[in-house]
Amino acid sequence: xxxxxxxxxxxxxxxxxxxxxxxxxxxxxxxxxxxxxxxxxxxxxxxxxxxxxxxxxxxxxxxxxxxxxxxxxxxxxxxxxxxxxxxxxxxxxxxxxxxxxxxxxxxxxxxxxxxxxxxxxxxxxxxxxxxxxxxxxxxxxxxxxxxxxxxxxxxxxxxxxxxxxxxxxxxxxxxxxxxxxxxxxxxxxxxxxxxxxxxxxxxxxxxxxxxxxxxxxxxxxxxxxxxxxxxxxxxxxxxxxxxxxxxxxxxxxxxxxxxxxxxxxxxxxxxxxxxxxxxxxxx
Length: 283
Prior knowledge:
Blueprint: H1 2-31, H2 38-80, H3 89-111, E1 125-128, E2 131-134, H4 135-157, H5 159-169, H6 171-176, H7 181-203, H8 215-228, H9 233-253, H10 259-273
C-alpha cells in the first residue's frame, strides 16, 4: 500500500506541475518568450485564493477569484509589456527575469515573510484497506486532469486554439492568413497565467504560502517543457507526470533536498537520447 501511496502522491504532484508547465509552454510556443514571471504568478494564485477565501468566498470562491485575477494580471502584462518582445528570445528572457525579481520583492513587502495557509474544503482522508487518500489531494488530481483536458480540447478545436497553433508553427504564414497576432498573443499569455494561478490555488491548502514559493515549481516546469519538447502540450503534460513521480519517489525514499538534482539529471538523460525532447520535432 505504501508504494501505491507514493504513486498517487506523484501523480497528484505531476498534474499540478502540468498546469504550470502547459501554461509556460503555450506562452513560449506562441510568443517565443521564456517567461520567468510564471513562478510569481503561481505564488500570486496561492495568495489570491487565501485572500478571496478570507473575504467570504470560501475556498472555491477564492480559487475562482485567483483564476480571474491571475488571468487579468497576465493580460495586462502581455498587452503593455511582453507583446513587444514576441520572438525576441534574449530580450524577453531578460525582461521577465527582471520582472520576476521585482514582483517577488513587492510580494515580500506586501505579504511579509510569515507563511500563510488556508484550510482545505474537504478535510480528512479516505482509508481504503490501509491506503490513505487525502481528500484535497483527490480534489487536486481530478480538477487538474479536467482542466488539462479542457485546455487540450480548446487548443485543438476552438478558433482561438487553431490560431495559437498556427502562430506556433509559422508566425509569418499565420499573419498572412489573417490571424490577429497581438490579440492571440495577449490571450495566450492570459490563459497561461490563469493556469499557473489555478495551480497555486490548488496547492495552497497543501503547503504554506510564501513569496518565493514559485521558484521550485518554475524550475520543475522548465524541466518539463524542455525535456517534454518546447511548445508541446502533450510533452509538457507527460513529462510533468514523470517529474511528479520523481519528486514523490525521491522525497519518500531519499531526501526532499535531492529532488531538483535528480530531476535535472533525468532531464539530461532524456535530452541525450532525444535532443528535441519527448514530443519535440526537428525544425
